[in-house]
Amino acid sequence: MGQYRQLLVLLTEVDPHSAALRRALALAHASGAGVHVLGLFEPSEAHLLSEERLNETEIQRQFEDYRARLASLVERHRGSGCALTVDSLRAEDLRGQAIDYIGELQPDMVIKDSEGASALARLFSTPLDCALMRGLKGLTHLVPAGAVSLPQRILVAVDTSAVDAPDAQARFNRALVRAAQALALQCDAQLHLLSAYDLIGVFASDMNVTQAWIDEMRVVLQEPFDRLADAEGVAPACRHFIEGDPAQVIRDQVAALRIDVVVMGVVQPKGLDKLLGDTTERIVSHPPCSVLAVHPQATDTWELWPCN
Prior knowledge:
CATH class of the largest domain: Alpha Beta
Low-confidence stretches: 270-277, 304-308
Structural class: alpha/beta
Strand order of the largest sheet: 3-2-1-4-5-10-9-6-7-8
CATH architecture of the largest domain: 3-Layer(aba) Sandwich
Radius of gyration: 21 Å
Mean pLDDT: 84
CATH topology of the largest domain: Rossmann fold
Shape: elongated
Number of strands: 10
Number of domains: 2
Distance between the termini: 16 Å
Order of helices and strands: EHEHEHEHHEEHEHHEHEHHE
Number of helices: 11
Largest sheet: 10 strands, mixed
Helix content: 40-55%
């Protein structure tokens, strides 16, 4: 039995080479899921230079053209063997309307082509990919151009650092592993588990910190990582507990292990520091591979059953 029943593909452009559409169709074949394609049409600013009536007429004409091209694209895949549906959304508020639409549909996973964004762009506005990750209470799968149809190596990044709610953090780490396992099962992919920890920033201001203290802290952080890996049956050779900046460690491991998808949790931003420092958004802004972002609320109704 497949892990997914319905996959939603978001398309902002009618691209016959869409990596997100390829990924969704491949997952549908593997899982038996249906695929719903939602085209997001947003009027361009150039239209606003015309008179209001002509502006509306031109926008509607372009929207109809967009719908026709989208329908033609989907029609090419009708004989692929999976249930395929399509819809178009003319959006005045692209982010809000897309999130509302997805909230009503409640797909198992939302799949979209990666866009990427600079740190400066994230500072002054919220890129669509980041807005979707924050707003969708589920799984957001962002796929870069040139990605393989079915991933063969999946890396799940967890956080075992000390937090105010260790039980909740442990539960979320387990949910991240389960989301990665579900994807790996459909693709017959190898699963790797990673925890990156950074002690330099913690002790940099105190020159009296001994190496013994640093080693002790490392052991404290690794214990929950080892428990998680043991509980979820992750092979010893696929466990990676590495010191360094988390975003850089993830990029390094993606390259070293030839990872196709990295599974990460979404942290809700609270102010400028969190926006600039959130590891998942930093990875998504310059993706080294596909990213499966798991929202904390996505796990509220999950049954965390033991996995073999």
